[in-house]
Design a protein that fits this description.
Length: 239
């Protein structure tokens, strides 16, 4: 059953990415929705889940520290290692690296989604189905987010499609990996907190400003809220 749901996550992510690729001409609107969805995943999914799992052993301040480490680590990657050079060719290469780091982060999160499904089924089938429902609910947005972050950073459609394939296969690989190891709830909680920090930076400092740059503010702001609201609603209904 876990493998079947992992395959369903592959399909959901692929459909989201295909939607983003088809609407490339309206990328700022896709980015607006994507920014809200990324922040929604961080605030309404990863943060509560990490608190629930990790605080059985660690203090809430420790979980918050993991979130901060994730946020500032991604900031350093973006601002220090991946600086904006003055030369156009170098700037293009830097943008490609930023897109790759963002897409890789999203793909690792998708892998952890699969890990969550696999580990949940080790607890019980009912718990596994609840976790899988939450994962499938936002995997469509994950596909949109992966394509959006690559295209925003000067990536071509082919590059975005390749990263979409990586992100789509990641949850299935995550499910398969749980057949070979176990991860404690507290360890998983800290990992989720780290990725919460990653997503907060991607959404707030990267996708959100870009979606509002030289575009209608009211419409993109509405889509920002809509993306976050959809994530909250799907998690609420799944939970």
């Amino acid at each position: 059953m876990a493998l079947v749901l992992g395959l369903s996550a592959v399909l959901a992510t692929s459909l989201g990415g295909a939607f983003a690729l088809r609407r490339e001409d309206r990328l700022h609107l896709v980015l607006g929705f994507s920014a809200g969805a990324v922040l929604g995943v961080a605030l309404f999914d990863l943060l509560p889940e990490s608190m629930e799992l990790a605080t059985t052993r660690y203090a809430p301040a420790t979980v918050a520290l993991a979130v901060g480490v994730g946020f500032f680590t991604f900031m350093l990657l973006n601002r220090v290692i991946l600086l904006h050079p003055e030369v156009d060719a170098a700037a293009s290469a830097s943008a490609h690296r930023r897109g790759a780091v963002g897409a890789a982060s999203l793909s690792i999160h998708s892998f952890l989604d699969g890990v969550g499904i696999g580990l949940a089924f080790k607890v019980s089938p009912s718990v596994g189905l609840i976790v899988a429902a939450a994962v499938l609910a936002h995997d469509f947005s994950d596909g949109i987010n992966t394509v959006a972050v690559v295209l925003k950073n000067r990536g071509q459609r082919g590059r975005a499609f390749r990263w979409l394939l990586v992100d789509a296969l990641a949850p299935l690989l995550g499910v398969v990996s749980t057949y070979f190891y176990s991860l404690s709830q507290t360890q998983l909680g800290l990992v989720l907190a780290l990725f919460c920090g990653f997503f907060l930076y991607i959404g707030a400092a990267d996708l959100l400003p870009e979606s509002h740059y030289r575009h209608p503010k009211r419409l993109t702001a509405t889509l920002n809220v809509a993306g976050a609201a959809l994530i909250w609603l799907t998690i609420h209904l799944a939970g």
